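Priority: low. Protein: Pentacotripeptide-repeat region of PRORP domain-containing protein. Input follows.
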Amino acid sequence: MPHAAASLSVLLRRLSSHPSNSPAFHAALLKSSSLSSPIPATALLTAYAKAGLPGAASRLFDEMPSRDAVAWNALLACQVRHARPAAAAQAFRGMAAAGFAPTATTLCTMLKACASSRALRPGCQVHARTVLACHGDAIMTTALVDLYMSCGRVEEAKKLFAHTDCPKDVALYNAVLSGCVENGQFHEAFLMLGGVGLNGITLTCALTACSATANVAYGLQVHCKALRLGFDYETVLCNALIDMYAKCGRTAGARVLFDRMAGRNVVSWSSMIDGYSRHGLGKEALDLFKRMEEAVPIVLPNAITFLAVLSACGHSGLVNEGRAMLHLMKSKYAIEPGPEHYTCFIDMLGRAGQMDEAWDLYCSLRANRNELYGAISVAMLNACIVNMDAVRGNTVAKLLVEVDPQNPRILVLISNFHAAARRWSVSDESRKVIMDKGLRKEAAITDYRT
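Result:
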């Protein structure tokens, strides 16, 4: 028996460190009849979750002869890890039906599920349970702050942070800081930095705020702090620095940082290409993309990379190169272009006056991809405005109104189109619809996410 227990202990340690081999360990545990105990069965379930096999984890749980609270929590964590909030809620109810009271771990996991799905009402119910159960440590408070920030309830999150009795650690500060950044409260984010011990996550959040506000002076201070604390070799932080410098107009500084990076991932390459795109440096963006294709170790471009390259081509009038990129992403990398790629390419063709090709592409997309219709139609109408193509523009405008008659942005665009075509009465009519229906065009915002 002692020998069997030692062998099981060794097996479970190997399982924890090599979750990708879970099926093989599953066979060994079955052979030794160890899965009758919840401890090895739960360890295997957790390994399946880490290996990206939530289905296998769920099946294993269903087959477990006995389950304890730890097993239920492992199942909950698996569902949340793989973005399955409905399955997590079902497991939560099943745990209660089986007679197990939710532990602090259970409630914390459910808060993560509610935060990821922006489910405020269920999240508030879980919050009430934490109060009744007197769970108020830093981990729980961090999960609650993340919930309210994710649901846009910034004031509630800040009140929780201000009135908590638990010691405020770096993770809690980072939850408030990142939440302020995600909700566009950049001034609040800057104020938070004074009272927190800095780590890589904190500095990355601060750089995101600098990028969104084009605050290069503060960005330089954050960069200096990262150098002093030794975080300048972290890939995620370096990516945030590249994005900050590029959005603040310091493309040369961004490139120096990029060239000095020890390990570049697809975000690094895409951020630098996007930096060139933002400033009309299409040739530099294309040169960098070609260098990416030749990079060792291999880094494959993704849809975001190609969007940055297409945007660079569009801003620099490189139509032939943009057309080649659209073909390359499909033929070489098997990436299906999305509405944003086709929108960018139609805009590029419109700027270059190549309306026949833009119209042919638009018509083919309308016929084959109904889900892309709205975004691409807006791009096509903009092209018609630029090229004073009243006939095609009128067709697109009518279709847009049929699809989304309550969208004030589309109505304003249609009004501008008719004004450009000197159809003043029709233009005024579109404006009148906006006023009569009480519609308001939302102000544009800067995309600060990286």
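Residues 443-450 have pLDDT under 50 and may be disordered. Residues 73 and 105 are 7 Å apart (CA to CA).
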